[in-house]
Amino acid sequence: MSDTQTVADSNGPLQSSKGKDDIIVIQHLHKWYGDFHVLKDVNLTVKSKERIVVCGPSGSGKSTLIRCINRLEEHQRGDLFVNGIELTNDLKNIDLIRREVGMVFQHFNLFPHLTVLENCTLGPIWVRQTPKKEAEETAMKYLERVKIPEQAKKFPGQLSGGQQQRVAIARSLCMNPKIMLFDEPTSALDPEMIKEVLDTMIELAETGMTMLVVTHEMGFAKTVADRVIFMDGGEIIEQNKPHEFFERPQHERTKLFLSQILAH
Amino acid sequence: MTYADTPTPATTYPPGTHPSLPPPASEVGPIHWIRVNLFGSVTNSLLTLLAIYLLYKTIPPLIHWMFVDAAYTGASRNECLEKAGGACWAFIGSRLQLFIYGFYPEPERWRVDLSAILLLAALVPVLYDRVPHRGKALIFTALYPVIAGVLLVGGILGLEHVPTDKFGGLMLNVIIGVTGIAFSLPIGILLALGRQSHLPILRIICVSFIEFIRGVPLITLLFVAAVMLSYFVPPGTNFDLLVRMLIMVTLFASGYMAEVIRGGLQAIPKGQYEAADSMGLKYWQAMRLIVLPQALKISIPGIVNTFIALYKDTTLVIVIGRLDILGIGRSSLADSKWNGLSTEVYVFVAIFFFVSCFLMSRYSLWLEKKLHTGH
Known about the structure:
The complex is a heterodimer of chains A (about 260) and B (about 375). In chain A, helix 5 packs across helix 6 and helix 6 runs parallel beside helix 7. Chain A contains 10 helices and 10 strands. Chain A has a 6-stranded mixed sheet, sandwiched between helices. Chain A has a 4-stranded antiparallel sheet with strand order 2-1-4-5, with helices on one face. With about 375 residues, chain B is mainly alpha-helical. Chain B starts with about 30 loop residues before the first helix and ends with a helix. Chain B is built from 15 helices and no strands. At the A-B interface, helix 3, strand 6 and helix 4 of A face helix 12 and helix 13 of B.
């Protein structure tokens, strides 16, 4: 299956034959919030180590889609496989999947009553039963990687937004996930701090992490992404390699969107 | 317009190099504080003067009555009156044992003292988290209710049995207050979590319980404890009245506690739950490690408010014929030797409650400050 697939050929029975490398397989996914049909027959296959940027206007369902992957949102119809495990109501499967999937939120969602270090060791200690000392060593390693080891003893409330988001990335990495989901990681940041977070994400991408990033940072998409997905109205309208996507968008809706976000 | 006390900076700084200067003298110090807080405006000044006048009229006479003109010794009210015209504290002094122990048999009162000392020891690791070996100390705290029960009631280990209707005075207030406080918090937490549960049956049970408790006066519950509960237990079983009171007071406080904690839970952003979930924490882990520490911290003022209300409500046991510190005081007034000393009794009881409640309130402020982790 080529990277330049379009919606038309990603539908259908071909998709169900999962490749060995496919770490996320989404088939005919539907989701409703009450009467509102948020996700309409979404199909997506993500290969291991693939970096995908999801963009689209607000309300297009892009956040909902990646939140379905770790079951922060429940889908009502369709199949979703993560790391070979099917995501159903089975709590055991949900727990197994969440261990392998890290998530970074728009508003960081650090735990304000714990220090930066404790934020990073909580998951490994309680979910993976890692001994405390080992968890702290791992945490320091990742805090160094995101370049804020000196803040380890501070509380999140004492850090800037950019620093908090880097802690959030380190916190997810401490769980040693196979997949990282980013839900608009730079949308709540001051312009001056966006770069430090994007740099951290670029470095992470270079280590071969499978990443799904919902973002409006088109520069990031051009530099890092293997594939850009454009969503609107709960559907995947178009997906392509970054340069193809930006140079030769196929759909009118995509062209309009790109003209609006690239105009300023 | 010029500011006489603001020295005009002699130097000008190139952009980006202006240092932070100390504030002008009019913005700091006691004079500034008085000017802003006491005489900030005409109304403010008038209120300040009025308050000073009222304090002048009330405080000196009170001090005279309580301390200067008070009689500390004497065998009857008349002896007090001969000595001085103020308060007759000799009355309280002569009955102090009764005020503290109620009708607990005199030779056994060391057991009450020992329980009180052990209570303080049990409280230390709960109130203060930096005690050495806190884990082991907390095991002792968990065992304390059993230890205190055995010690106070006796009947085993060679301790003489003391029926609970001999309990009275301050010890009764403390027993009911501490039991209510210790058990209403965990029950309240469970009720508050149950009220948020996704399981409809659990939610309905918790909501009805909370609404029932809040809709019924405590006195009614105590009457129920005294009279009605005996209908529900099998005949022949002796379900101690004190235990029934303890249960009722605890349940009553838990209903209020649940609502206080629910307020705290609602203040926790959804993102905290999502972060905990996405990390793979299980429900109870997420509650214990992430949600409750934050929710309880927010709820501290309300929790302590409930504790204080509960502690003062312990005086209501008088309606079912048990004499706590207030009840002992009231019944002491019937003594003809000490006729007409109700003011002394009520002042004494009021001071006792004020001191206990004020300590709780100060502790909660200290705790709030300690747990504050933001800017």
